[in-house]
Write a structure and sequence with these properties.
The protein has 271 residues and is mainly beta. It is built from 1 helix and 18 strands. The chain has one domain. Strands 5, 8, 13, 16, 17 and 18 form a 6-stranded mixed β-sheet that branches. Strands 4-6-15-9-10 form a 5-stranded antiparallel β-sheet, with no helix packed on it.
């Protein structure tokens, strides 16, 4: 009888252990904020094209409040270099990245930030990106490249939910994005007092640079982005960042599209 009781107790313990393991396995991934809003390293979903640190990250570095918000824009036309706020766009479409900086008037690689609401079901998400624009040999000093090469319809890749950014083991899901200001919005008009309006995001390196408006260049020097989203039909957004190998901020990502006040631009889908 004593042995039978021990066997019964052991069986109960084993069943409990299995149930606990199953519970752990089905627990959702915890959410976290970015590791930092500024002077932080962020991993690219498709690997960093230039990969200065050998770990597929770039250094995000904004030197002052309001800095890096005037040069890079999202626009729906190659003739509108200042861009605009484009809302309720479709699950597939085209937009452009323009550069209105003066000196040196370029950045070496543009980065897409794609985001969807934190609670969205992205099990079947497939985001396909094709881009057209210019690339060049990195310059040794802060200068406009002496020669550039145009690349048409580059297949940047197709991205699923496994490409969303993590902070350690936790999925990044928050209502702000990297900038000097920690509370910088994801999109124009966002209510930053609403803690539930959060987004999981991925950063996609295009390997194509931005060039100031030039009618002698294809698409006036802009980058064309063609996107297609399947397996998901909810809200989504795009923002833009750019990286420079040589700049006053050093080797860093120090520019993004403004989404506050005059001069804002952005691209939101289904809202």
């Amino acid at each position: 009888m004593e042995n039978e009781g021990r066997a019964r107790a052991l069986k109960v313990a084993m069943v409990s252990a299995v149930l606990l393991m199953c519970a752990v396995c089905v627990m959702p991934v915890s959410a976290a904020e970015f590791a930092g809003n500024n002077q932080t390293y962020i991993e690219m979903a498709n690997g960093a094209f230039y990969d200065p640190y050998g770990d597929d990250t770039y250094f995000f570095n904004f030197s002052k409040a309001g800095g890096g918000l005037n040069a890079i824009h999202i626009t729906d036309s190659t003739t509108n270099k200042n861009g605009g706020v484009y809302t309720n766009q479709g699950l597939n479409g085209t937009f452009y990245i323009s550069d209105t900086s003066k000196n040196p008037g370029c950045s070496d690689s543009a980065i897409l930030m794609f985001g969807v609401p934190g609670e969205a079901d992205t099990t079947d998400l497939a985001l396909s990106i094709t881009a057209s624009g210019y690339n060049w040999t990195l310059t040794p000093t802060i200068m406009y490249p002496p020669s550039v090469t145009y690349y048409d319809s580059v297949d940047i890749g197709t991205f699923d939910e496994g490409r969303f950014l993590k902070n350690g083991r936790n999925l990044v899901d928050c209502n702000w994005r990297p900038n000097f200001d920690k509370s910088y919005p994801m999109y124009y008009g966002q209510d930053m007092t609403d803690p539930s309006d959060t987004y999981k995001v991925m950063f996609i390196d295009l390997g194509l640079g931005t060039l100031k408006y030039n009618t002698d260049l294809i698409d006036n020097g802009m980058i064309e982005i063609d996107y297609d989203i399947t397996g998901y039909d909810g809200r989504a957004l795009f923002d833009i960042y750019t990286w420079c190998n040589q700049s006053k901020q050093g080797q860093s990502v120090s520019w993004t599209n403004r989404v506050t006040d005059t001069g804002s631009s952005g691209w939101t889908i289904n809202f």
